[in-house]
Design a protein that fits this description.
single chain, 410 residues, alpha/beta, Nucleotidyltransferase, domain 5, 40% helix, 19% strand, binds adenosine-5'-diphosphate
């Protein structure tokens, strides 16, 4: 072997040993008062956790591959008040906890990608500047999402980052379903139905062929029922309609958000009830939905375990609206082959799923009560014309998948 061949062999070996250092994808979901995080290796989460109570009493939790509790990041004596302030503590903690593994890229959930972003994208200065201009479309979420990206960039400028948009999956929605009946100029300016929970719907769509093959290529409603809630109509796994609209307020009533509301109500509150714009915003985002209806809690588990009539009525309203909207999306789809329940309530609450499925009997959904109590995966009887499934959503997995692909991390 001559010297050149030996040199080439050595550099190949060196390259291989660099590549052999396990490479990890981080996922950051910066909300208004919490930051959720996860670290993936080979497509599987090896660390996950969250810091919540930001702005009041922040607390961190972390767990490992098998769900075992890990010592969480130390929030220090000056606790973070916003999600982005968590990153200077989280990233060094992750480096230490990951041991010999190397963080290769970070993927971020970004609520609003606007009209132009039909796909998730690698972060560039131009992209960040453009996403800043969308803050007025999602003032409660977008600033936190973008601050997390900026902070991570400042801490580690060489680390590739990816923005994954909650709106991107719905850009396949036809214009007729995106438009509000306002003068065209407003549509052109971006006042349109964007649809949200796109990462959750995209995950469900991606696993349908494996988990619900008989409906995967058909007409499916994904019922993302959690603290935030929306329905998405899938035709052959593409979104053709969503109950969420211009903001995350639209559609189903949620934990604290109102869902569908006659816009005349807002005019009435502003013009005749002396409410300020801020007070109306607080009412619609934080005081309505299950909390407003029950007067006690926004949490579905609390409401289900409470005998109080108003708590039961709040759940009745939630199921009624969900059934109505399923009917609307079935019409948009020209029929229905299946419903998939996902997110906190959809995955875990057999009584709420049962109430919704009973309301869908007219369309051909026949519930298998025992399978529903076991949480599925299939919860409709074999002969049911419309199938129903429970599928656990995984927004982090979708973000990790796109981040890995866009940053070419093998
Ligand atoms: P987020 O929008 O915050 O991600 P989740 O998808 O985690 O929300 O859903 C949270 C909601 O799910 C809460 O209202 C919680 O009470 C509800 N939930 C979780 N487990 C159950 C259960 N076993 N039965 C009923 N509701 C549940």
């Amino acid at each position: 072997m001559n010297d050149m061949t030996t040199g080439r062999t050595r550099s190949r070996q060196l390259r291989r040993s660099i590549n052999d250092v396990a490479r990890v994808i981080g996922v950051i979901n910066a909300g208004s008062s919490s930051l959720k995080f996860a670290f993936y290796e080979g497509g599987r989460p090896i660390i996950s956790g969250h810091v919540d109570g930001l702005g009041s009493r922040p607390a961190a939790k972390a767990s490992g591959q098998e769900g075992e509790a890990l010592e969480p990041p130390n929030l220090g004596t000056m606790p973070p008040a916003t999600p982005s302030e968590v990153l200077p503590m989280l990233l060094p903690w992750a480096k230490e906890t990951l041991g010999g593994r190397r963080l290769a890229a970070l993927g971020h959930r970004v609520v609003q990608g606007g009209m132009r972003h039909t796909k998730h994208e690698r972060v560039t200065p131009q992209l960040l500047a453009e996403l800043e201009t969308l803050i007025p479309l999602a003032p409660l979420h977008q600033p936190h999402n973008l601050a997390a990206i900026r902070t991570a960039l400042a801490l580690n400028p060489a680390l590739p980052q990816v923005a994954c948009f909650d709106t991107a999956f719905h850009r396949s929605v036809p214009e007729v379903a995106q438009v509000f009946a306002l003068p065209q100029k407003w549509h052109d300016e971006g006042v349109r139905r964007y649809g949200f929970h796109g990462l959750s719907c995209e995950y469900v769509a991606s696993v349908l062929p494996e988990q619900a093959p008989e409906i995967a290529d058909g007409r499916v409603v994904v019922a993302h029922l959690g603290n935030g809630a929306s329905l998405c109509a899938l035709k052959a796994r593409n979104s053709i309609a969503s109950t969420m609209g211009f903001t995350v307020l639209d559609g189903l009533p949620m934990g604290t958000r109102c869902g569908d509301l006659d816009p005349g109500v807002i005019l009435h509150l502003l013009q005749h009830k002396g409410m300020s714009v801020d007070a109306v915003e607080d009412l619609l985002y934080r005081q309505s939905g299950m909390l407003g209806l029950s007067g006690t809690s926004s949490d579905f588990r609390d409401l289900l375990s409470c005998k109080d009539q108003r708590a039961q009525f709040a759940i009745e309203v939630f199921c009624y609206q969900t059934i109505r909207h399923i009917g609307s999306l079935a019409a948009a789809l020209g029929g229905l082959d299946g419903i998939v329940f996902t997110a906190g309530v959809g995955e875990n609450s057999a009584p709420i799923r049962a109430a919704i499925c009973r309301g869908c009997l007219w369309i051909g959904l026949e519930l298998d009560e025992a399978a529903n109590r076991r949480h599925g995966p299939r919860i409709s009887i074999v002969s049911s014309r419309v199938a129903a499934y429970v599928i656990k959503s995984d927004e982090n997995a979708i973000i990790a998948r796109h981040t890995q692909a866009l940053c070419d991390v093998g």
